[in-house]
Amino acid sequence: MTAIDLEGEVLGIVRKLAGELHPHRRETSISLDSSLDRELGFDSLARSELLLRVAEAMQIELPDELLGTAETPRDLLRALRAAPSQRSTAQRTASRDSDQRPASIYVPLSAHTLVEVLIAHATAHPERVHVRIYEGTSDTPRPISYGVLLARAQRVAAGLRHAGLEPGQAVAIMLPTSAAYLETFLGVLLANGVALPIYPPERPSQLEDHLQRHGLILDSAQAKLLVAPAQAHPVVRLLRSQALCLEAAVTPESLASNDTEAFEPTPIRADDVAMLQYTSGSTGQPKGVILTHAQLLANIRAMGTAIAAEPSDVFLSWLPLYHDMGLIGAWLGSLYYGMELVLMPPTAFLGRPARWLTRLHEHRATISGAPNFAYETCVTRIRDDQIAGLDLSSWRLAFNGAEPVIPDTVRRFCQRFAHYGFRPEAMAPAYGLAEAGVCLTVPPLHRGPVFDRVDRDTYQRRGEAVPASVDVANALEFIASGQALPGYQLRIVDDTLRELPDRREGHVEFRGPSATLGYMRNPAATRRLFHGEWLDTGDLGYIVGGDLFITSRVKDLIKRAGRNIYPYEVEAAVGHLPGVRNGCVAAFGTADAALRTEKLVIVAETIETTKDARAALRERIDRCATEVLGLAADDVVLVPPNTVPKTASSKIRRAECRERYDRGELGRPASAVAWQVIRLWWSGGRRLRRTLSDEAYALWARIVFGTIAAFTWLLIAALPTEPLRWAVMSRAADLLLRLTRVPLSVRGIENLPSQPCVLVSNHASYLDGVALVAALPPIFSFVVKGELKEKFFARVFLERIRASFVERFDAQQGVLDAHRTTELLRAGRSVLFFAEGTLTRMPGLLPFHMGAFVAAAEARVPVVPITLRGTRSILRADVWFAHRGAISVDIAAPVTADGPEWQAAVRLRGHVREAILASLDEPDLAHMMPPELGADAT
Which stretches does DSSP call E strand in 252-355? Predict the structure, then answer.
C-alpha cells in the first residue's frame, strides 16, 4: 500500500467515526493534523473505539499507550508505519473506506489571510466565476473569475507601490459598487496596505457634512492615498482641504495601468491590519474599528458554520461595498467559501425595489440580505404586476440586520411574499456590529422569526421582559436576533457590570475571536469599549433561552416619567401616517434644562406646507405616539425632506438630530410639559434601588450557602451510614432553596425505574447538583471529574456519598474508570452523569460524551433523561453572584439501548439528547461547538 493509500484509509476511518459521533455538525476538513479532542470532539472512549477500528482494518495490534499519546491522525499513521505488516496489500486495498469525501470546490480552510484566500481560489480554479456584477444600466451582468480578479488586483497593488504606499499604511477607497472596487480593495491587501472604505457623496445638499465627516476619518486613519473615480476629483480637492494628511488622489484606471512584473509581494501575517471600518456614527462621531486578517477570517468562518455556507450557494447583494454587511458579509464571505456572488448597485434597488426580488428569481440566489427598511419597502412599494411569475423558493436565507428589525415588517413581508414561494423559515433577523467584524448572532437554520410580546409597563419601568398574555392589546413586541456565533459569547450586564438573568434588560456585551483590537488613534474610546475581556456593544437587550432580543441603542434610549421608551417603535408607526415620509422619522429624548428631565421629541419629514395640513399632521403624530407608547410627545417637529440626518447605510443619526434640535436648527420647539419633581426623583432612584436589591439578595444567598455547606460537610464526614448522609444532604439542599426563595418544580418522578439505571442531565450551573439532590430520591451516585480527588474538602464529601471519579485527561485511566462505572451499575447502583462533561455561561446544549451511554449499553440498564432549567440564570459559570429565579426538573421516560455494541451506545446517546433538547428550550450547540469546549471528559 502506498503512503497516500494508507493516509486515505486512516482519514476515512476518522471521518466515519466523527460522523457517527456528531451527525448534526457540519462536516469540517479533517486532516492528518486535526486534533482528536479539540477539533473532532473524541473523548477517551471515542479514541478507544478509533484505535479498535484502525487495528481491525489493518489487522495489526497497536500499542496500548497509543490511547493516551495519539493526539492526531498523524500519530496513528506513524504507529501504523512502525507496526509489522500482518496482511497483504490486496487485503488492505479491498478494505479501503468507501465513504471518501467527494470532489468539491476548494475552500481554503487553512488560510491565514484574505490574500491567501484569493490566491488559493485563483490557483485551484482560476476560470471559475466568482462575481457577476451589474454595472451602469446594463441588464446583463459582467462575469469576473478568480484568476482575472487576482491578476487585476496585482496590477492595482503594483500601482499603489509605485504611488508610494508603504506596508501598514491606510488607503481610502471612495468608489461605487463596481469591478474597480473589488480590484482596488484586494490590491490594497496584496500591497500589505490597510483598506479604508468610505462612501461617495450622495446629495449636493449634504456635501459640507460629508466632507467634514470624511476629513475626520482620513485624519484619524492617517490615509495618504485616496482612490476615487475621475468624476469625483472636484470633490476630492475639497476633501484634501479638510484632511491635511492626504497626499494624493488616484483613479483605479491609473493604478491598473502598472506592470505587475515590477511588483514584489511582501509577507503578510494573520495579525496584520487588513481594514479600518469606521462606525456609522448613528449615535455620535464615527470611530475607526481595527480589524486584522485573522479577525475577519474568524468572523467569516463562524458565520459560514452557523448558516452552513457552501460553494454551491449563490449570494445576491445590492448592499454598498463600503458598508460592513455588503463588504464582509456578502463579498468577503462569498470569496472565502467560493460561492458565486451577484452584485447590484444600491441604486438598482432604491430606484426600483422589484429588481432585488427579480434578480433573486433570475439567478436562483440562495442567500441575500438587507436592513429592515428594504423589506418594508418591498411590502409597500412593489406592485403585484411588477413581480408576476416570480419564484423565490430558492431563497433559503434572508438576513435582516444592520438596523432595528421591526416585527411588523417581518410579519408582513413573510405574508406578502409567501404567494411567490418565500418561506417564513428563510427570514433570519441577525445582529452584528463593526467591533465584531460584521456579525455576532444569527438564528438557527430553518427556524424562522421568533416574536416576544412583553408587558409594556413592567418592561419600561423595571426592565423585566414579562411575557404578555394574548389578550393584552398594548404589549411591547421584540424579535429575536438569533444566537451567538460559534466561538462567541454574549452576556447582559447592569450598570455595575453584574451579569443579569434571562429576561432582564441590560447592556449587551460580547467576546469572541474577531473582537476588535480597539479604535484607531482613539485610546479614550478604546478604554470605554472594553470591560476586561468583554466588549460593550452600546446596545441594550435581554436574552431568552440563548436568543438575543435587542431593544435599543444605549444613547437612543429615552427616559421619561420613570419609563424607558424605545424610539424604533414610534418611528415605525409614525412613518406609516399619510403625509409623513416613511423612514424619515426620528424620535429622541433631550434634556429639559428647567426641570432636569428628558422630554420626548419626534421629528418627521413631510412635504405638507399649509398651516392647516401641518397642524392636522402634528395631531395625527401625537395621537399615534400616545396609542403606541401610552405617552404623548413633548414636541413634534415637522421638517422638509432630506432634513433628518442619516448615516451612509440609511440609519437615523439620532444624536446629531438631537444636537440640531437643541441648537434650534430643526424648527421651533414647543413648550415643555411640566413634570412633578417627585416623579423625577423616583425615576432617577429606580436603578439604584434595583441594584441594591440585587446586591442584598446575592449577599444573602452567599451567606446561606456558606453556612449550610459548612454544617452539611461536617455531618456528612461524621455520620456512619450512607442513608443518613443522603438524608442530611437532601434536607440541606431543600433548606438552601427555601431560604433563598428559589421555587423547585419536579415533573415526571414516576418515570424513575425501580431497577438500577443511568441518569443523564444537562449541566448549566454549579447549582445543578443541589437541584438534583433536592428533586430526586437518594438512589444514585454522582459521576464527577477525577481532579476533585486533589481537593481535600471535595474528596472527603464526594467519597462519603459514594461518588464515582472519572479521569478526564488520562485517556487510558478514563477508559478504565468508565468500565468501573459499568461494574457499579451491574452491582445494583444507579449513577448520574452530566454528559456534556462541562458547563458554560451561555445557554445551549453541548455535545454529549459517550461514557454514560457505553456504560448503560454494556450493563443493559435504561437511561433516564433529566432536564434542568433555571439554574444557569440564577448562578452562571464563573460568576458567584446569585440572582432570583426558579428551577424546574423534568424527568423523561427511560430509554434502553438495543444492544451492547458501540453503535447501540451512539444511538442511545442520540435518543437521550433529543429528549433533553425537546424539554430544554435552549439552542443545540452540537454542530457549533468551539474548539475550547472540546472533549475534556469521559
Answer: 273-278, 288-292, 314-317, 340-343
Residue 774: burial class (beta carbons within 10 Å; 0-12, 13-18, 19+): buried
Please give the Cα distance from 554 to 646 (Å, whole number): 18
Low-confidence ranges of the chain (pLDDT < 50): 86-103, 282-284, 561-562, 593, 595-596, 667-684, 930-938
DSSP string, 765-827: -TTHHHHHHHHS-S-EEEEEEGGGGGSHHHHHHHHHTT-EEE-SS-HHHHHHHHHHHHHHHHT
Q: Which three cell numbers stand for residue 319?
A: 448592499
Give the model's pLDDT for residue 519.
93
Give the helix/strand (H/E) hosting 395: none
726 neighbors 778 (Cβ within 8 angstroms): yes
CATH number for domain 114-351, candidates 3.40.50.12780, 3.40.50.11810, 3.30.70.3550, 3.40.50.10540: 3.40.50.12780
Give exposure, 377-406, as e/b (b: 16+ Cβ within 10 Å).
bbbeebeeeebeebebeebbbbbbbbbbbb
In 630-775, where does DSSP find H-type helix?
654-662, 677-718, 722-739, 768-775
Give phi and psi for 793, each to the nearest 5. Answer: -65, -40
What is the model's pLDDT at position 674?
A: 36
Domains 3-94 and 114-351 fall in the same CATH topology: no
Region class of 119: left (phi > 0), else alpha (psi between -120 and 50), else beta: alpha
- Phi then psi dihedrals of residue 259, to 5 deg: -85, 125
Chain Cα centroid distance, residue 582? 30
Encoded amino acid at 719, one letter? L
Distance CA 490, CA 485 (A): 10
Q: Assign residue 146 a region: left if phi > 0, alpha if psi is -120 to 50, beta otherwise?
A: alpha
C-alpha distances in Å from residue 224, one per residue of 95, 190, 276, 561, 841? 63, 17, 14, 50, 45
Q: Which CATH number is associated with domain 693-933?
A: 3.40.1130
Scan for cell 414610534, then name that residue.
570
Q: SS3 of 162, please?
A: helix
- The predicted pLDDT at position 570 comes to 79
| Topology classification of domain 3-94 | 1.10.1200
CA gyration radius, the chain: 31
Residues 183 and 226: beta-carbon distance below 8 Å: no
Contacts of 707 (CB under 8 A, 6+ apart): none
Cell of 380: 409597500
Q: Give the residue among 542, 537, 546 at the shortest CA–CA distance from 458.
A: 542
Between the alpha carbon of residue 168 and those of residues 195, 278, 295, 312, 668, the distances in Å are 10, 17, 16, 35, 49
What cell numbers appear for 320 in the block?
454598498
- Tens of pLDDT along 553-602? 766 666 554 455 667 767 888 888 899 988 889 888 776 645 445 678 89
- The residue extents of the domains of the chain are 3-94, 114-351, 558-675, 693-933
Nine-digit cell string for 713: 460537610
CA distance 415 to 41: 42
Alpha-carbon distance 336 to 133, whole Å? 18
Unique residue bearing C-alpha cell 491635511: 244
User: What are all long-range contacts of 84-89, with beta carbons under 8 Å and residues at least 24 apart?
Assistant: 84/60, 85/60, 86/58, 86/59, 86/60, 87/58, 87/59, 87/60, 89/1
Instruction: Give the HSE-up count for residue 927: Cα atoms under 13 Å, Cβ half-sphere.
Output: 18
CB-neighbour burial class of residue 308 (10 A; exposed 0-12, middle 13-18, buried 19+): middle
Residue closest to 28 by CA, chosen among 758, 685, 773, 927: 927
For domain 558-675, the CATH architecture is: 2-Layer Sandwich (3.30)
pLDDT at site 566: 63
Contact 488, 302 (CB under 8 A): yes
CB 806 within 8 A of CB 938: yes
